[in-house]
Each structure stands twice: as C-alpha cells, then as structure tokens.
Amino acid sequence: MVAWASTSARVPDAVVDAVATAVGAEHRHDPVSPRHGGPAGNARLTAWLGLVLLVLSLAELATLVSLGSLIAPHIVIGALLVPPTLAKTATTGWRMVRYYAGDARYRTAGPPPLLLRLLGPLVVLGALAVVGSGLALVAMGGAAHDAIVTVLGFRIDAVTVHQGCFVVWAVAVGVHVLARAVPAW
After folding, report:
1. Residue 13 within a domain
2. What's the CA gap between 78 and 55, in Å, rounded?
3. 2 — phi, psi (to 5°)?
4. CA nearest 127: which of 76, 70, 64, 174?
5. What CA–CA distance (Å, rounded) separates 159 from 144?
C-alpha cells in the first residue's frame, strides 16, 4: 500500500495502483537477460514502438484538419502505422504470454498496473480495428460510402465504421498514453 493511502479509509487496490502509476511512485523491476534482453529488452522495445506509434498517430491526426485535400498523406501514414502496430501488439503479447506461462524473469518483473491491464484489450482491439477498417476503406475505394445497414434512419457505411473504431481507439489510447507519460515525466 502506498504511503498516502490511509488505512482508516480503505482505498481499493485498483485506485491505489492507478494513482501510484500516474504519479510515478511505483516502478517494476525488469530483469535483463544476456542474449535477448529479457523483460527489460521487451519493455524497451515496446516503449520505442509506442513512441513511433505516438509520432505517426499525431501525424495521422494532423491530416484530419482537411481530410479532403490530405487524403493521400492520411492513407500513406495509415499504411506506415501497420508494421509498428503489429510489432507493438506482438511485444506486448509476448510479455503477457511469458508472464502467464510462468517464466521466472517475467514473473519477477510482474504484470503492468491494473489500469493498463484493463485498457489493454481496448487498446489492441481498437488499434487493429482502426488499421483494419482503414485498409478496408482503401480496398473498397468509392464503395466505402455505400450503406452497409440503416439503423433507426441512420446510414452506416464503411467510413462510419472506421470513424467509430477511431473513437474507441482514441479514448483507450489517450488514457494509456497518459498512464505511461505522467510517470515518465
């Protein structure tokens, strides 16, 4: 329990973990392995991929100011997002698999804070949905604006699906980035 959490007023562990992570009070120990880096190498690679994704995502967001005239850069940057998105999903998945498979080095390092474990599926599924639906839009061309279904008088087309995936991804990633950036600051 962190020092600020009073014993008289029981604070849920999830809240304590989230606040401790956000203020940088908690750090896990990532053991280093000689050949491939182990948990420390995995954490470093994942962090660098996260930084690459952050920069590319900000560039992608900048194209939204005038999507009509910036559609070509939007598509190119979106395509550039595919490899680091898949790589970061793989490095995070590797850490999770090694931890739950009982690898002593990853067990020693411990799991990420509870907030990030809860956000993880939304971040991964949101990222894959945004990238996948974006690639589908490129493949569909002009047919992307054809209605897939109409619900209560609202047309839903492939562009709407892409936008919906983006909103889910943006909220999850926004919280994720804050949870990582605040302690790093």
Report:
1. no
2. 12
3. -75, 150
4. 174
5. 6
The pTM is what?
0.76
- The per-residue pLDDT for range 121-179, each reduced to its tens digit, is 999 999 999 999 999 999 988 787 777 878 888 888 888 899 999 999 999 999 988 88
143 membership: H or E segment, kind and range: none
Say how many CA atoms lie within 13 Å of 9 toward its Cβ.
5
Rounded Cα–Cα distance for residues 57 and 82 (Å): 11
Whether 24 maps to a domain, the answer reads no
- Expressed as residue numbers, the domain containing 143 is 112-185
Res. 22: pLDDT tops 60: no
Q: Which amino acid is at 56?
A: L
The answer on 78 and 51 residing in a single domain is yes
